Amino acid sequence: MFDIPLILLFEGLTNGAIYALMALGLVVLYAVTGVINVAIGEFVMISALTVASLRAGAVPGSVYLLVAGLLLWAVYDALRFARERRAGRAALGLAWPVVAAAAAYAATLLASRAALPYVAHIAVAVALTTALGPVSYRVIIQPLPRASALVYLIMTIGLHLALTGLGLAFWGPQPYTLPPFTSGRVRWGPVLLDHQDLWLLVLSALLLVALWWFLGRTLHGKALRAAAVNKLGARLSGISVVRAGSAAFTLSVFLAAVAGVLITPITKMAYDFGFLIGLKGFVGAIIGGLSNPAVAVVGALGVGVAEQFSAFYVSSAYKDVLVFLLIIPVLLVRSLQHVDFEEHVE
Amino acid sequence: MSADVETRVRAAAAADGPAPAGRPAAAGAEGAPTAQAAPAADGRPPLLAVERLSVRYGGVQALSEVDLSVGHGQLVTVIGANGAGKSSLVNAIVGVVPKAGGRVLLDGEDVTQATPEALVGRGVVLVPERRELFAALTVEDNLRLGAYRRYLRGDRDIRASLDEVYATFPQLANRRRQLAGTMSGGEQQMLAIGRAMMARPRLLLLDEPSLGLAPLIVEEIFRVVAALRDAGATVLLIEQNARAALRLADHGYLLETGNVLLSAPAAELARDERVASAYLGA
Amino acid sequence: MSGAAPQRTAPGGRAPGAGSALGLWVRRGLLAALVVVVAGLPFVAGPFGLRLANLIGMYSLVVLGLVLLTGYAGLASLGQAAFVGTGAYTAAILASRFGLSPWLSVVAGIVGSVFVAWLIGLITLRLKGHFLALATLAWGLVITGVLRNWIPVTGGNTGFGSATGNRIPPLTFLGDPIRGDREYYVLVWGAVLLTLWLVTNLMRSRVGRAIKSLRTGSIAAASFGVDVQRVKMITFLMAAALAALSGGLHTYRELFIVPNLASLNASIDYLIMAVIGGLTSVWGALAGTSVFVLLKEQLQQVLPRLVGRTGNYEIVAFGFILILVLQYARRGLVPMVDSLLPRQPERPVREDAPPLPPRERVSVAGPLLELEAVTRSFGGLTAVNRLSFTVGQGEVVGLIGPNGAGKTTAFNLITGVLWPDSGRVRFAGRDITRLHPHQIARLGLARTFQHLNLSPSLSLLENVALGAYSRTRSGLWSGLLGLGRAEEERVRAEALRQLRRVGLGDDPFARADSLPLGKLRLLEVARALMADPVLLLLDEPAAGLRRHEKEDLKALVRRLRDEGVTVLLVEHDMDVVMDLADRIVVMNHGELLASGTPAEVRRDPAVIEAYLGREVA
Question: Which CATH architecture has domain C369-612?
Fold first, then answer.
C-alpha cells in the first residue's frame, strides 16, 4: 500500500537533493551579498555540458567564457589601480588573471585531448565552472557595491540570458546525456534505485554535511556568516566583505556545478534545462526566507517530494505550476512577519 | 553658564587631588588648542597622529581640519556634545567613512587610504558606537572572529588571548555558548571590547562605550579600560560622559561642531568651564 | 526673515538661468518629429515595417505599465507578461466560444485580468522589493503553466485561434472588419497615444505624486496622508490593465495566440525594454521598446549566420546590454539623452491661484498631545519605558536627552510609525494609539525626519507639494483625465509660498539632491508646513545648519507659534532648544527624567548628570 508513496518519496528526495544544493547556495549568497542569483541554474548546465564536451574530445565553450571573464577582470582591475594611482599593485593585478586564463585554457585543452578517466573530466569541469564564480562576482557584482537588491536581481537576469544564449551557441539545442558513475540498480523494498540515484543522494548529503561543518565549525565559515549578519562589524573585525561576497558567490556556483554532474546522468541536460532547476531551488530558498539555510534545505527537499506527488496524484502536466504556487503562501506568511517600514528603491 | 554647574565642576575637580606622578604635564598654554598630546616619557613620536582631518556628509562639514595625536601608552579622550563630530572622527580614522581631506599616521606610517580590515591587521581596532556584534553567533564565535586577521596570518596563539578575555570579563566566560544578541547591553559592550582585544591591538579606539548603560556597568567598563591602559595599551576614547572620561584619561580634546575647541591634559580640561557650556548651552 | 536676503524670485517661481527657450523648442521639435513619424508611417512603410510598428505599439503598452509600477512606484514585477496572457486568452475565449462581441471581449479581458491582479496584489503587495519580484515570477509561471496545460480551454502549446479550429471574429469598425497591419496600426497606436496622454496626466496629478513618493520611502508618504497600500494596489492594477489591453490587441491582430505571450521570457523582455529606455520615463517606454524590437530583428538575422546554426542568440546580446546599462547608464536611454539636451523651462507656478482652504482650527480643553505610560521594546531592549508627558496647545515643547535616550522612538510612537506595547497616545482628546501614520497625518499632525525622507531626484517644489496631500481631493480618475489642474495650481502656489517661508524660494525647480543637508532639513519643514498642521513635529531640524540658518529656523518656529501652530521638537543643539522652547521634556534611558522651563531644566542636577556624565570611581 505504501509502495507508490515510497517510490515517489525517493524520486522526490533525489530531485530535492539537487534543489537543496541550489537553495543552500542561493541563501548563503543572498545573506552575504544581497544578491539573488537568477542565473544559478545556468552553472548547472555549464558544468554538465562541459563534461560532455571533454568526453567527446572537444574543447568546451565554457573555457572561452572563463578566459574572456579573466581578461575582463584584468581590465577592471587595471582601471581601478589607475584611478587609485597604485602602479605597484597594478602590475601584479594585471598579470595574474592573464596567467590564470592561459593556464585554464591549456589545462582544458589537455583534458580534452588526453584520454582521461570520467572522474577526471568531472573534476576539470567542476573546477572550470566554479572558477566562473569569482569571475562573475568581480565583473558583475563588485563594480556596483551599493546597489539595491533589485538592481542585482536584474543584472543576474542579464547574466542568465547571456549564459543561456552562449550555452545554445556552444552546445546547440539538443539534450546531452552522461553515463552514470557506476551502472547497476539496488532494490530496497518496493523502491528500485539506480546507482546514480544513490551517488546523488549520498554525495549531496555529504556535501551538505561538509557545508554545515564549514559554516558552523570553521572560523572561515563563521567569518562568512559574520559578513552576512553584520557587514560593518565584520569589517571592524578584519573580515573583508568583498572577499566574503566573492567566496559566497563561488560557493553557490560550486554547488550548482556539482549538482549538474550529479543530475545529468539521470535526467539529461540541455542549454535551457538548468534554469528550471534553479527556479525550483529558489522555491526552497524562499521557504527559508532567503535567510535560513537549514529551512531552505528542508524546504527544497520538500519541493522535490511535492513535485513527484503532485505529478502522480494530481497531474504531471501541472506539477511545475503546483510547485510555484507553493511560494505564495510562504511569502504571505513571511510578509506578515515583517515589520519593516522603510523601503528605498534606487 | 549657571553658577551651580560651575561650582559643581570645580568641586569635582578639586576632589581629584593633584595629578598622580607619572603623568607628564602638558606642553602649551592652558586652554590654547595644542596639536600635540603630551609625548610619552621616552620621547617617541605619537602612535597615532591625525593631521587636518576633514569629513563631509552630503554638504555638511562634520569635521573640519582636526589635528590630534595619541602617544604610546596613553589614554586620550575626545569629548563633546552630541553632533560634535566625535564618531565621525574615529570612523574616518579607521576608514569606515571617507575622508574629505587630511592624513592619518600610524607610528609615522601613512595609513590614510587603509581599509578598516587592513587596519585591524596592523593593530588598530575600533569598538563602534553600536557595538556591531554578530548577534546570531555565540559569544565565543564573536571573540574568535575578532582574531580572524591573526588566524589568517597563521597565528595559532588565539587560545591564550581567549583565556585573557575571559579572565578580564568573567560574565563572558559564563556565557560562551550564548548568542550575542540575547545578552544585556552591558554584556554586549564587554563582548565588543573583548572582541577588539582578541586582535591584540596596538591602538584601541572606543566609541562611546558607556552609551545606554547603567552607571554600575559603566564603572566596570571604565575599570577595564583603565586596566588595559595600565597594561600598556594605547587607547583613544570617545565619550559623551565627560567626567568619567576625563577622570581616566591622560589627555583630552573637546570637540564642538567639527572643530577642536580645547586640547589639554585631562585634569585641566576637567576644571575648564567651557566643557560644561559646550554640553548644556551658554 | 533675518539673515541674508534671498534673491528675488522671478514671478512664477522661475529661477534665472534654469532652462531656456531652446530647450523647449528642441523638445517640441522632437515631439513633433515623433508625431510625424507615427502619423506618416502607415503611408510609407511596407508590410514588414508595419508589423514591427504594431509590435512596438503593443509592447509599449505593457512597458508603460512597468514604468508606472517599477519605475515610479518602485514595485518590481517579473510577471507582467502573465497579464498579457490573461487579457489575450480571456478575450479570445469569450469571443470564440461564447460569442461575445470582439470589442466587449477585449474589455472583458481587461476586467478579468484586473480582478486576478487584485487577488494577487492582496497577497503580494505587502512584500519587500525583491520578495515581490520573486512572487511575480512565481505567479507568472503559474499562469503560463495553466495556459499551456489547460488544453481543453486554451488549446495548450499549439495555440488558440482560427488556425486551430476556434474561430475568433475580427474587430469591426462601422461594420468593416479591421484586418491587416495597416488598419490595425491605427488601433494600436491610437491606444498607445491615448495611454501616453492618460499616464502623462496622471504623473502630473495628486495621485501621480503619491505614486512617485512610494519609491523613496513609504513612511514619508504615509506621514502626509498617503494610504500606501491603496496607492500600490492602484498602480498594480493599472499596470495589469495595460498589459491586458496589449493582450487583447495581440488576440485580434492575428486572430491566433500562443501561451508564449505570457511566458517568463516575455516578462524579462518587457523588463529589458523598460531598463534600456529608462525605467522612470514614460517616453523611455517607447524608446526602449523600439530599440529592443528593431535590434532583436537585426540580431535574429545576423547572429545565427555568425554562429553557423539557427537559434535565438540575441538573448546573449540583451543579457550583456542589461548588465552594461545597469552598470554604466543606470537611468536609461531617454533620461540620459534628456540630460544632454538643453534644459527646458519648468511650468511656471500660478501665484495668483487661490490659496488652499485652511485646516479647521482645533480647540481643546486639555492638552493637544498626551502620552500616557507609553512603552515600547525591541527584542530585549526597552527603548521607551512608561513615558508620559503632554504638549499644550500653542506651546513649543523641546524633547531632549542624551544619545540613545529614545527620543526618535517616542516620535515614531506618536506618529504611528511604531505602535506602543502598552500605554496610550491622545491627540486633541482622541485616542490615536492604534492608528496608521496616514490616518494620523489626516488629523493634522505633520513631521520632519531625522534621517531625511525626500525624493532626491525630484524638484524642491515637487517634494514640498506632497505635504498637501491630505488637504486635497483630486482622485485617480480626475488625475488620469487631467481634470484636477485647478487644484494642482493651488498646490504649487502654496508650495512656492512655503519654500519662500523657509528661505528656499530662490530656485524651486532645483533638484533636491543639489542641496546641502542643512537646506534639506528646511525643505522637510516646508513640506510639513504644507499640511497646515495643528501639531508640527520636528526631528532634529537644526542638525547641520550654520549659525545664521539656525537663527532663521528659530525665527520661523516663533512665527509659527504666533500663528497658532503647536510644535514639538527633538533637538540636540542646546542653543536652539533652550532659546526656543516654552517647556522642555528630558528623556534618559527611555524614561522621563525631568520636565519644566528651560531655566529649571538646566539647573536640574539629574539633567546635568545625564548629559555631563557621572563620576566613575
Answer: 3-Layer(aba) Sandwich (3.40)
